[in-house]
Amino acid sequence: MFIGRARELSELERLYRSDHFEMPVIYGRRRTGKTRLITTFIAGKRAIYVQARRSNAAANLRLLSQAILGFATGTSTGSFSSFDEALDALAALARDERLVFVIDEFPYLAQSFPEISSLLQEKIDHAFKNESKLMLILCGSSLSFMEEQVLGYESPLYGRRTAQFKILPLPYREARTFWAETDPVDAATYFGITGGIPAYLELIDPTISVRENIERLFLTPSGFLFEEPTNLLLQECRNPDQYDAIIQAIAAGRSRLSEIASLTGIPESNTRTYLVKLQTLGIVKRELPFGVASSKRAIYALADHMFRFWYRTVPSNLALIQNGMANQAYARIEDLVPTHMGAVFEEICLQYLYDRARAGDLGIVPAKAGRWWGTDPRTRTQEEIDIIASDGDAALFAECKWRNEPADAEVLRTLVHRSELFPHAEKCYFVFSKTGFTAGCTELAQQRGDVELVTLADMYGD
Question: How far, rounded to the nearest angstrom, does the alpha carbon of residue 211 sit from its chain's CA centroid?
Fold first, then answer.
């Protein structure tokens, strides 16, 4: 079952219909569904798909040759003498009729044959663009390679791509369709522990409890997600131990550069470099309070919900997990699950606001959006606002409550009070609640007339 990616598929179809040379670049972290997107797109089309291997140039040339010859002649025996010859044959096949040629895991091919990028540049400029109807798709899971060696200014392929798609985790709206009949609280929790990664979403069994899914996937040695963060760091990073230490520090509550460097013992300059890499991978995010430009206020947090959940639950329970004590391990982390879901719920609520804005049903255009924290000069206390979205003089303020009890009127009063720290002329308010609202909160919202109260179940018609 293929879920989501409607915009990506639509844009790929638009490029396909152009009937002249196109080179979309598709990249993103492993498990995000890049290959599934491509195979769904090329289904029923005149297409050749090749997945490069982590091997030598000769082996990858054989792969390309077998795919091209198999398409052209019906037999995959034989091989071209060079990549140059293989690409010339490809141009001939696309001379008069649209042909899609996919090189999946392109970084493996480039590592085995570094000249491939320069060779592709030559073919694009002198054969593909003017003499063919080729749609060449380059796909890769190494974000740094794809951004630097394919899309980057110093790459021979710079300027040749006609579109690029960075494939990100699915939003909650799409992720929840994996288990359409599931209770919305459970569905949100599954989104929160998988981070919206399609390959992980497919692992969830909606016929068993949240606890059983967590024990099966995270808290048993054979669980698919038991070693997943470690494996991803090994694949993406040259010094995985250093990255692991930094992620552990952030998961432990260290949010500032100096704090992370101090806890890990890694010099600040190196820590900053590692953090940039982790941001590129989508594992870490750098945040500033809404409306603040000074980098001195910057903090770091784990953007990937699966990583954040894993680092707060698995390492501290390794002995229990490795000795087959998943039940005991879960008992130790049970209270962390709702705590983990607080930040997840904020993201779900922000996604919902953008969905409303796309539909023209929000009242403002969220040109800027984020979280705010700081000192209230009226009380000299530290305060937070979960979501602020603004467009000029108009602003939206939101509070997100992942609690088992209904949100009361004091939640709304506090939100309005904190919003007074901002000078926007037009203000509206949202209060999001996992479980609903008290009669007092509902009455106050009706009296004000500028408030929307939204439960998790309300968001997408659950």
Answer: 24
Put residue 120 in one of left, alpha, beta given phi > 0 → left and psi -120 to 50 → alpha. Answer: alpha
Handedness of CA 175, 181, 182, 185 (dihedral sign): positive
Q: Is the pLDDT of residue 462 over 70?
A: no
> According to the model, what pLDDT value does residue 294 have?
86
Contact 29, 141 (CB under 8 A): yes
Q: Nearest-CA neighbor of 225 among 295, 159, 307? A: 307
Q: Is 423 buried (19+), middle (13-18) or exposed (0-12) by CB count in 10 A?
A: exposed
Q: Which fold has domain 6-166?
A: Rossmann fold (3.40.50)
Q: Is the CATH number 3.40.1350.10 carried by domain 344-459?
A: yes
- Which has the closest alpha carbon to 225: 340, 345, 139, 326? 326
Coil vs helix vs strand at 211: helix
The pair of three-digit structure tokens given for residue 350, joined into one six-digit string: 């922000």
pTM over 0.85: yes
Using an 8 Å Cβ cutoff, are 12 and 41 in contact? yes
Q: Is 339 exposed, middle or buried (0-12, 13-18, 19+ CB in 10 A)?
A: exposed
For the chain, give every domain's residue range. 6-166, 173-341, 344-459
Report the candidate in 395, 329, 408, 392 with the shortest Cα–Cα distance to residue 362.
395
- CATH class for the region spanning 173-341: mainly alpha
Give residue 1's pLDDT.
57
Residue 46: the pLDDT is 97
Is the pLDDT reported for residue 195 higher than 70?
yes
- Name residues whose C-beta falls within 8 Å of residue 441's C-beta, 6 or more positions apart in sequence: 406, 407, 408, 409, 411, 412, 431, 453
For tokens 């069994």, what's the residue? Answer: 205
pLDDT tens track for 71-89 = 998 877 789 999 999 999 9
| pLDDT, tens only, 321-357 | 999 999 999 999 999 999 999 999 999 999 999 999 9
